[in-house]
Write a structure and sequence with these properties.
The chain has about 220 residues and is mainly alpha-helical. Helices cover about 70% and strands about 0% of the residues. The protein has six helices and no strands. The radius of gyration is 38 Å and the shape is rod-shaped.
Length: about 220
């Protein structure tokens, strides 16, 4: 005898039961979607979040940049002060040697003292970024070269007149070289100042020395940062 087939269960359910079942399915599907989204967001956050080493490196870089920016301000102020000290000396040296005037021993001693004072801020320099260290090292080298020019001038003041011309010629060349070295350092300092957000800062020596020295770019002070 053939087995009688009844109505499918989904047809036997009443409408309320079907609605409840549908609601449960929707709720379960929504819960699964929510959990999936939360897990995906958590995984994405963990993947995108820097680890402890990366965070430490970033913090060090930020601190270095802040420290270097302050060093650039201080170095610029020092360079302006020192340039005001040595520029008149180098200008007079050039004028005296060009005119063939006999060196003044008393003046030579005063200049040597000024050069020692000018060099003091660079005797124990702080450590900064490479770019800032290059600018500071260039300024220091220029001061040392200017000091040699003054020493040659002082030596010329103590030798017989027959030997004086050669020493004065050496003095003039050393003074010109000091201006050239300073101009390179001043150009570097101008660039790091711009990079640090301080804008153009021109600390070139104001002398009438001729040669291959760089000159200011003509941009207004403080612009371009």
């Amino acid at each position: 005898m053939a087995r009688r087939t009844g109505r499918p269960s989904y047809l036997s359910d009443n409408p309320d039961e079907r609605r409840r079942r549908t609601a449960r399915v929707v709720a379960v599907a929504g819960a699964i979607a929510l959990v999936t989204a939360l897990l995906g967001g958590l995984i994405g956050y963990q993947v995108g979040q820097p680890d402890a080493t990366e965070a430490s490196i970033a913090s060090i870089k930020q601190a270095d940049a802040k420290r270097d920016a302050q060093q650039i301000v201080e170095l610029t102020e020092t360079a302006r002060r020192v340039s005001a000290q040595i520029a008149p000396i180098l200008t007079t040296l050039k004028a005296d040697t060009a005119a063939g005037r006999a060196p003044d021993p008393a003046q030579a001693r005063r200049w040597q003292e000024t050069m020692r004072e000018a060099a003091k801020p660079f005797e124990d320099p702080p450590s900064g970024t490479t770019a800032t260290n290059v600018a500071r090292g260039g300024l220091r080298g220029a001061i040392q070269q200017a000091g040699l020019a003054v020493d040659s001038y002082a030596l010329a003041a103590s030798v017989p007149a027959a030997q004086r011309a050669a020493l004065l010629d050496l003095t003039a060349r050393q003074a010109a070289e000091a201006v050239t070295i300073w101009s390179v350092a001043a150009t570097q300092l101008d660039q790091v100042s711009i990079d640090a957000g301080h804008g153009h800062q021109h600390v070139f020596l104001t002398t009438d020395a001729e040669g291959s020295a760089f000159t200011p770019d003509g941009e207004a002070e403080g612009t371009g940062g």
